Amino acid sequence: MITDTGFIAVADAALATLGDALDRALATSDADVDWTLNDGILEIECEDGSKLIVNRHVPNREIWVAAKSGGFHFRAVDGRWRDTRSGTELAAALSGLLQAQAGVTLPPLELAAGD
């Protein structure tokens, strides 16, 4: 089992990769979206004032996403962050949530997860 320190490093790398992908997406978009990454919490504020929150949850070794459409938990499975209910990968799920909530499409990306 991965240690707390190991989990935090892997989760923070995934969050930073998501932030970089957001920057690339916003560079070619007219959407007014702001984001911050602070201490394991990626907060994305949409033009309409709504937010998507992506954060690491150390006790469960998961990345949690809160969006208008609901809450989602992603766990490391076979080296990928997968939704604990649907099995959808984090990058694909977040891309869909961002498109629906902010009109922003993330570029294709892979988010590695430690198992």
Task: Explain what this protein looks like in three dimensions.
The chain has 115 residues and is of the alpha+beta class. It is 32% helix and 30% strand. It contains two helices and six strands; from the N terminus they run H-E-E-E-E-E-E-H. It has helices spanning 4-27, 90-102, and strands spanning 34-38, 41-45, 51-57, 62-67, 70-77, 80-83. Strands 1-2-3-4-5-6 form a six-stranded antiparallel beta sheet, covered by helices on one side.
Briefly, what is this?
The chain has 115 residues and is an alpha+beta fold. 32% of the residues lie in helices and 30% in strands.
Structural class: alpha+beta
**If you compute it from the alpha carbons, what radius of gyration comes out, rounded to the nearest whole angstrom?**
13 Å
**End-to-end gap:** 7 Å
Strand content: 25-35%
What profile does the largest beta sheet have? 6 strands, antiparallel
Estimate percent helicity: 25-40%
Low-pLDDT parts are: none
Q: What is the global morphology?
A: globular
Q: What's the pLDDT, averaged over the residues?
A: 93
Number of helices: 2
Defining key terms:
alpha+beta; six-stranded antiparallel sheet; about 30% strand; 2 helices; about 120 residues
